[in-house]
Amino acid sequence: MRAAAQGYLLLVGLVIVGIAVILRIGASIPEPTAPAPSSEPASALSSVATPAAAPSQDDSSSVPPRKSGDPLTRLLLQLVVIITVSYLVGWLFGRFGQPAVVGEMMAGLLLGPSLFGWIAPHAFQVVFAANSLEPLRLLSQIGVCLFMFVVGMELDLAQIRKQAERVLVIGHGSIAIPFLFGVALALPFYQLYANPGASFSAFALFLGISMSITAFPVLVRILRDRDLFHTALGRTATLCAALGDATAWCILAFVIAIAGAASMGVALMRTGAAFLYAGLMLAGMRPLLARLLRHWLRDDVEPEQAALVVVSALVLGSALITQKIGLHALFGAFLAGIVMPSGGNFRGKLTLRLEQFSSVLLLPIFFAFVGLRTEVGLLTDAREWLICGAIVLVATVGKMGGTALIARAFKQNWRDALALGALMNTRGLMELIALNIGLEMGILSIRIFTMLVLMAIFTTIMTGPLVQLLTRPARVPRTPGPVLKYRRI
User: CB 3.0 to 4.6 Å from 286: which of 281, 339, 384, 476, for a disulfide?
Assistant: First the structure.
């Protein structure tokens, strides 16, 4: 245990020193003073890429406001298109062994200017005119908050404490190494792809976050689809991803506080307020909820309207508080999920109710909104596609390779270690949420945003085949029948 603790401290220390050196070097790089080449979105999407920006005065391709029609009619049309396409593409991906959520991510990309707007520009303007997208943006944010609430409920802190040493080292190592790789990428990319006015530290830290996040819910879905959830590999991957994601979101909260503050003093105040609020939620709100909801914390009682009112008020109120602090509303929703009582499978019952509504309607809206902000046509030449490929390679080597090396230190064989690394390389929706925040804050340009979205989709798609290849049942020689390598625990 002492050796593991020393190794953990050494790893974290080296990563912190490396990041500090890179940030110091990057501080001398001049800030971008003009928009990155080709970083402007298509004219019809200018208000989608930057919601706060004024609409372009020369937007001849947009549907004129006087022809936009009834806003409710337009919104209903958008929802019908999004839900239908998301379901069909998700079903198609499921036929090829991918989780439906991967297909829904791809559906969002197909509904944007990368395909729909390219092959049918007039129809694209009829359905997704730039001046009609604000309701979609707000609905997508509500969907993300509900999703993060469910993610918070799925974190099992008791299980993490039981395997604290192993989970801590592998979980944090799986984000520390790719985080360092992402920060290093900022050195050559800052002047090319950062938005004007974005500081090097904010840009570098966002790249680090984009390389280090694991999509915990997608990982669990992949494990269940392949009957690996109750194996030693599945349990380790689940706990490490849960701890890693919680840590990554804490880091993201700190980055947002720094990037959105006018000075370091304001950033420290926001960070302190966030930690104070988290402490109050964990120490005060959790026992209070256990008393308020005690009637429904029994196996034979289903949550009724009163319980759902209490939960809804907590989720939305917590999201409101973190939004006012200067972080994002999703952090408040995430905290609300963590403090939910778990007696009588209360969390499972809430998850079942929320997932059915959120996964069918709200999350596809978020994927579509991300797709509207992503324009593959901005990658205009072979050089930019090579850069995009390099980003995918660095992300995969950092996450999969880094996790595998640390797992090897815990005496896992290479096959098990690489399988764990492949699972931790799943990014999916969690990555898209972080990228969306970076774009809205004016840190990432549309060009680098597009590359990182493609990286998130590609690394998530490759997880399933890699895990299937690395976890095929192994036969033990000279035994009367096949023996599965990964035994249930």
Answer: 339
